[in-house]
Recover the amino acids of this structure.
């Protein structure tokens, strides 16, 4: 376990310079968390079938399975925009998901809320588990060395943010109350018509989406005011791929995409197992949508065909 000082800081070996917000990871709300164990891959002689959690994709056979998840509860998923590393924020800490499977990064802390702000730069919140030097709950914590070490910035012992997102120079977070900060240390409160299960800002920080029980909400002023998105499906989770492209998943796994800044949405026809976490981002190969189910990580380029990531 990484040693920590009594001031709530994990000693840092390196601290790269901070950079602007480049990518946002949408994080699952606590109500969406589903326990699950990794499934064994099918045998070589297994008959062709659709992999559980992947709908309408006959190209995927039972012999193709994703790599085992590192924990039963995955709260967040996304890629580091610096090197493309696939990240899983879990009940037991942060993991890199590579060719050899998941690799633990940093201390064993419960990352309930998680957002990628730039290369190697992450925000999170949650619980310290057995790390006694951190407050319970942790409040807003930050890592600038790819999750190896974390620093408590504010609201330690006060806030367990289950969802948070940087939106330009503002950071929005929800702990039972929608809160806003521009310096990551002092906070103001804002009104929202429903409890956000997911908060997600587009890369420019101009548009923020909130999924609620009463429907999808959109803010154009970094969370000060919100407007319902008419006709949007009942999304459980949502994320932006770029400033105009957003993707979302309903509680029963229906996938939807918007290409006009979240004004209108279409169901793609794909359906995945109930999601624990999801994200969207633009990679060198184009749009990538990631969905974590109870057993594996699924990837899609267009929201219509999902395949398991094998590590």
């Amino acid at each position: 376990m990484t040693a920590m000082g009594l001031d709530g800081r994990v000693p840092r070996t390196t601290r790269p310079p901070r950079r602007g917000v480049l990518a946002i990871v949408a994080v699952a709300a606590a109500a969406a968390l589903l326990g699950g164990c990794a499934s064994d891959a099918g045998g070589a002689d297994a008959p062709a079938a659709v992999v559980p959690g992947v709908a309408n994709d006959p190209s995927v056979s039972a012999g193709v399975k994703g790599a085992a998840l590192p924990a039963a509860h995955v709260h967040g998923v996304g890629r580091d925009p610096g090197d493309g590393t696939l990240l899983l924020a879990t009940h037991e800490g942060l993991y890199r998901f590579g060719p050899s499977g998941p690799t633990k990064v940093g201390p064993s802390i419960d990352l309930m809320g998680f957002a990628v702000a730039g290369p190697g730069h992450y925000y999170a919140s949650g619980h310290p588990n057995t790390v006694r030097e951190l407050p319970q709950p942790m409040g807003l914590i930050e890592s600038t060395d790819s999750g190896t070490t974390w620093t408590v910035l504010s609201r330690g012992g006060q806030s367990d943010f289950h969802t948070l997102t940087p939106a330009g120079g503002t950071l929005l977070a929800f702990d039972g109350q929608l809160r806003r900060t521009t310096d990551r240390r002092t906070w103001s409160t804002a009104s929202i018509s429903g409890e956000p299960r997911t908060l997600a800002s587009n890369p420019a920080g101009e548009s923020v989406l909130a999924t609620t029980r009463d429907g999808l909400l959109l803010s154009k002023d970094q969370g000060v005011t919100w407007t319902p998105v008419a006709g949007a499906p009942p999304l459980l989770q949502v994320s932006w791929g770029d400033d105009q492209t957003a993707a979302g998943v309903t509680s029963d796994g229906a996938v939807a995409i918007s290409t006009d800044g979240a004004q209108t949405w279409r169901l793609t026809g794909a359906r995945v197992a109930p999601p624990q976490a999801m994200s969207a981002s633009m990679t060198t190969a184009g749009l990538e949508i990631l969905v974590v189910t109870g057993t594996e990580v699924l990837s899609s380029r267009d929201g219509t065909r999902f395949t398991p990531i094998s590590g």
User: Anything to note?
Assistant: The chain is about 0% helix and 40% strand.
